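User: I'll paste a sequence; please echo it back and then give the predicted structure.

Assistant: Echoing your sequence first, then the prediction.
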Amino acid sequence: MTNHSGPSAERWDTLIDEFRSFGGTANNVIQRQGPLGLGLFPIDSSQPIELHAPEHLLIPTDNLELKHGEVRIKNKQPFPEGYAAWYHQFQKEYSWGAEASRSIIAFESELQKLPDSIQRILNRFLPIPIKQRFPGSNIEQEAFNRFILTRQINWGSKNVLMPIIELVNHSPAQNTWVITDEGISVNGQFQDEILVRYSVSDPMHRFIQYGFSCEELMGFSMSMKLNHRGQQIIVRGGINFTPFKPLPVSTKGEQIIINKPLIGCENRPRMPKTVFSNCCEHLKGVNSDELFGQICQANQLAVVQILRELKKDNHASSIKEQLQETCWLQLNAIGEHYGHRGSMD
């Protein structure tokens, strides 16, 4: 673990001074260990923090590579002189090399060890099955690919990494990044750790994507097929990043395809059934309340089945405890719905 005191604090100060020299902003912040692992904290909690990665310091993910186990910028030309060397050192000491590579490899390895019965259920929450997303043929490169996926942010038309800002940890209760044409920022006053909301998600998807348990405000469906009043329904699971907008629904032959339905929302519990009902208005032979109930029930039974399989499995591991906690959080999240709203406004 990195403990930024003494010489380490001096290295951090040097890193931040150099970041500022390239045009970045990092005021009243320091990296240290906290309940969520390594994160950023205010030096003086009575004062606001300021973080800003300007446009010219954002790094497109396709301009990054893993070379001899270290993260490097491939094409240095678009950046200020010396920035590529600074970024290499930043990743080596404070991000990829500090904790990320080891934690990603450990998490993915533990996922692989879960019983097949659990993996089959978890795969219904994933676009790529567990064994395919981390096959183990090149562990370091596969971990780097996961690192990029968990830290990239869409800025303009590109996926980019944000120097310094990528060290901020997640909380669903906080505001998200401030994204403008000029760059990406985090500002405000924090009594303890500096946190932002990475994105919309639910406990299960967050756990599988990022490797930690979190009490998210929403719950989304996994993928499934079910029969509703003689019709085949295909639910394509996943996170809907615009959960309160009309739900994408299509047909393929006699199949009805519903994409990424929101089935729970703690702070707006009337919205899941409202959005779902509106998407089913023009579907013949569909009772939206009944179908919504079928989808919720299937999700609940699948999560309960994971809990049962975990209880039967005698293999002790930290991931089992995390997954168990995530299952309970997921059950809470997908249960947060009742009634309808009169309109979508």
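The radius of gyration is 22 Å. Confidence is low (pLDDT under 50) at residues 1-7.
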